[in-house]
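ugh ok fine here u go
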Amino acid sequence: MADSAAWTLDGIAPPDNTYRDAGEEPHRAFWRFIGKKGEERFRWRCNQGLDKDGVPLTPIRESTRRKGRWRSHTGRGSADHPPLVPALGLSRFEELLTSRGFVDHAEWYWTTDPVSGRHWGQVALWHAQGAGLLPVRNVIGWSKADIAWLRQEGATWWYAYQHGQRVAAAAAVLQLPFDRQPQRIAVVGRTDIEYATFGIGADRERTARAIEEGFHTGFRQLPPRGRTGGRQSPRPVPAAEPPLVKVAAMKPASPPKKAPAAKPLTPVPAPAPAKPSPVTFGPSTARVSADATSLRLLKEFTGRDFVAQDVASLVGATHDAEVVAYGYGRGDWAEVTVQIRSPRYHSNRTIKVVNGKPIIHNDLLVVEAAHRGAGLGAQILGRQVEHASKWGFDRLETDAARSNGPDGYVGYYAWPRLGYNAAIPADVKRKLPAAWSDAVTVRDLMKTPERRAWWKEHGVWTNGMIFRLQPGSESMQDLQMNLAESQSKKPK
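structure:
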C-alpha cells in the first residue's frame, strides 16, 4: 500500500566511465531529462488506463457511467475516458504532476490544485489506498516496462550529449561559432514573390515565412534590361511620304448625304473587384511526439496516411510549440488526445469519429498574459482549419467558456467572431431586445457592433459550439474575413 504521493527513480544512469567522470552538471542534466520523460510516460500510461504495475485500473462504476459527460473547471470530461483522467490531459492527475532532477536520481510529485487549494498528492494517495468508498487505483510509481523505457530514453540522451560535446570541442579548435543563432536581416526593397520561380530546396511558402520572421532580405523582381516594367509597346515607325500623282480636273462634288443618327453607346460595366486571396499559414514546424496508435487511428478516421509532423498542423500548433499525441481505444471509443505546449500558450485537443465523420474537439486554449490581444488564437485556429478541412474533417467543436477576472476565459466572445456558432442559450435569448427577435444563433449577434457589444456583456458559457469545415461555409467565411481584417490593420 502506498504511503507517500512522491516517488523516485535511480540506477538507470549510463554505466560507462565517461558518464561516471562527467561531473555534477551533466549528471543533473541527465536526471532532469529523465524527470521530464517520466512525466510524458505517466500521461501516456494514464491515457491507457494502467496503474503503476501496468495493470488496467478498476473501471468506472456503471452508476457513474450513466451520468454521461460532465464539465469541470479543467475542461470537458467523459465517463468513457480512463479512470482518474475523465478529461484526459486536462485532468489534474496529469496536469499537476511535475518532476525534478538531482545528481543521482529523479523525483516525481504532484503540486497544489490552484482552484480547490487541495494538494493533489493527497488525492492520489487516497486513490492508491482505496480510502472510503474509492476502489484502489494506485498510479504512484513505475512498472518494469516504464523503467526499461526510461533507461532507453536516457541512453539515447547520453549518446546525443556526448556527440554534442565532441562537436563543440571541434568547433572551438577551429574557432567556429557553433552555437551562433541566425542574425536577423532587414527586408530590402519591395518583396514580390507572387510570380517568382523557385529553385531546388525553396518554395514560396518557406520564403514568405523567412521574410516575415526576419531571416530573408526579400527581393525585387526587376524587368529585363531596357524595359521599365510591364509589356513594352513596339517603337513607332514613321509613316512614309505618299508618292506624288497627277490629278485630273474634278467635277463639282455633290452635296453630302445626311449621316444616320448615332446610336447611344451602351455603358460597359466596371470589372468586378478581384476576390482577395484566402489567408493561409502553411504547415507547422513544431516538435512532435506521436505514438504509433495515434497515427494508426488518424488513418482509420480519415482514410489517409499521417506522419507525426502532420499532427502539429492538424491542431494548429505554432512553430515554437511542442506537441505530444496519444491514441487509445477501439471502434466507437477510439480517440487521439493531443497536448500542445508553447512559451506563449498551452492547449489540448481530442480527435475522434462522431456519427461516421471525423471531428476535432478543441478542449482548451490558455494564452499567457504577455501574449494576449495579439491575434494568437486566430492564427492557431487559421492553421488548424486550413489543414483539417483539406484532410477531410467535418467540423471543429468547442465549449466556449466564460469566467470573470483578469485571467478569466473569453472564448464565449472570441470564438463566435472567428466562425464558431451555436444556438443562443435560452436564458440569454429571453433578455434580447425586442428589435432583435430575428437573432437565433450566436452568429446573428456578431453582425453589428451593437449586437456584439450586447453579447460581450450578457453572453454566457456556451457548450457545443461548432465550426463547419466545408468550403464556403459561414464558419469559413467569418474566419477569413476576420483574418483579412487583422492583416489589413498591420503596419505596412
